[in-house]
Amino acid sequence: MDDKTLIANVVSEVLKRMSTSNGSSAIAASSPAASTSGLFDNVDAAVDQATIAQQQLAKAGLEVRDGICKLLKAMALENAPQWGRIELEETKVGRLDHKIAKLGLLQGIPGVEFLKTASKTGDKGICLDEMAPWGVIGVITPVTHSIPTMTANAIAMIAAGNSLVINPHPSGAKCLCMAAAEYNKAIKAQFGIDSLINAIATPTLDSADKIFKHPRIPMLVVTGGPAVARAAMQTPKRAVVAGPGNPPVVVDETADLAKAAEGIIFGAAFDNNLLCIGEKEVFVVDSVFDKMMAAMRQAGAVELSAGGVEKLTKAAISWHEDHFVANKDFIGKDPSVLAEAAGIKLREGVDLLFGETTEDNPFVPVEQMMPFVPFVRVRDFDHALELALKHEHGFGHTAIIHSNNLNNITRMGQAMNTTLFAVNGPSTGCLGANGEGYPSYSIATPSGEGVTTPLTFTRFRRMTVTNSLRIV
Ligand code: NAD
């Protein structure tokens, strides 16, 4: 299946489900009273509610957890067209078709089937290892995928037996709260459990800090950029930290250039390059550089001239204190907006802009999160690897290579030491979109848990029974 077909299939599956449910499938956005909706304006009240709900969940057992996970997935799919639109209207970053696809991709989030128990028996009795919940988990979500991150976290955390208190990004809080309230209402109606997914309706840095420090929140799960990742890594609490990336791509002389171009366009254009795993800068060896640029044009991306790149760079990236930052007016915007800044008018249907730059261009070190990707000409594979390492900044997040040289693939995989390493496909392949792997919207990089699953949100507990309970 080619790249566009995959997205088209997800979107059409969503639309098909809409049309086969009497036209009344969409659950209206409403705001029930705070006590049942899970929406709060203070952290203590949210933690109180989350504590009660978690105790109810613990009593209800695994089948109910499984049922809730399936319910959340069904609701995300059913509501994807409206929720995608509502999220885009509020956050103003990304693309509608991919906002919808991201809600559809939640179908693949692992649930209770990921919880495995282990046992050991011997002459002295038995031991049983179980994966227990933490309790109430404090959650921070990014603006880039507000409802998807909340839903993916909720599925995995509830599968593991936990409840949530969320401090959403202020620019994506309304849509997150709307979806959380709908989930809570449906969970209550079907399973009788009060709001498991609790959110601060008007989040601030102060409410985030209260969640970080709350004595009844034993675990934090933080998804976001450098500042919040740093703050989370400094807390004395158990923190699962899904931090920033700046994924480099290396293309060597053995690569299938047409496939490389397709992969780069798919990964970098996805939701206008908002994904933390998305291709952000490309290093191509000199001997195939011109052919690679031609392959990108052939695959439908539009190349900016040197003058166009210069104009776009001036408009889209600025110097802040001691480093470059992407300009908010361009983050997650459509290619046509970037093209206008570069001084060209774009034809319909273009997913990605690209252009030759030197390593010095700020688009190379900056996690731009917009659909323009700089292509840097390098001497050879060694040079490409050196620059890929430098511009990934040691985040240990994601790296991509297009190559048919096993030695180069192995060397890059070892040297980059990233959580995700995509070979001969788009970055999204690592999360199951055009590749093998299950998805997650929180890839825990500095804290090391990687692609989060229900197991990430459990505590190991062992019971040992000495000299009894064995049946042999
Ligand atoms: P952001 O850092 O601006 O905000 C993320 C969240 O952190 C928001 O809820 C925000 O309110 C909160 N926050 C920011 N500073 C804080 C502080 N000092 N204390 C407490 N809370 C704070 O990021 P964003 O623009 O929403 O999202 C994009 C960033 O997130 C990118 O860097 C991207 O790579 C990263 N991201 C990573 C993953 C992953 O799985 N590793 C997934 C999505 C996004």
Characterize this entry briefly.
By secondary structure, the protein is of the alpha/beta class.
Features:
Aldehyde Dehydrogenase, Chain A, domain 2; binds nicotinamide-adenine-dinucleotide; Aldehyde Dehydrogenase, Chain A, domain 1; 472 residues; 2 domains; 20 strands; alpha/beta; 16 helices
Describe the structure in your own words.
By secondary structure, the chain is α/β, with parallel strands linked by helices. The chain has 16 helices and 20 strands. It has two domains: 33-105 and 115-243 and 450-465, 3-Layer(aba) Sandwich (Aldehyde Dehydrogenase, Chain A, domain 1); 248-437, Aldehyde Dehydrogenase, Chain A, domain 2, CATH 3.40.309.10. A seven-stranded parallel sheet has the order 11-14-15-10-9-16-17, sandwiched between helices. A six-stranded parallel sheet has the order 1-6-5-4-7-8, with helices on both faces. A hairpin with a 2-residue loop joins strand 2 and strand 3 (125-133). The relative contact order is 0.14. The protein binds nicotinamide-adenine-dinucleotide (NAD). Nicotinamide-adenine-dinucleotide binds at residues 140-144, 167-170, 205, 208, 223-225, 227-228, 231, 242-245, 276, 367, 441-443, 445. Residues 140-144, 167-170, 205, 208, 223-225, 227-228, 231, 242-245, 276, 367, 441-443, 445 line the site of nicotinamide-adenine-dinucleotide (NAD).
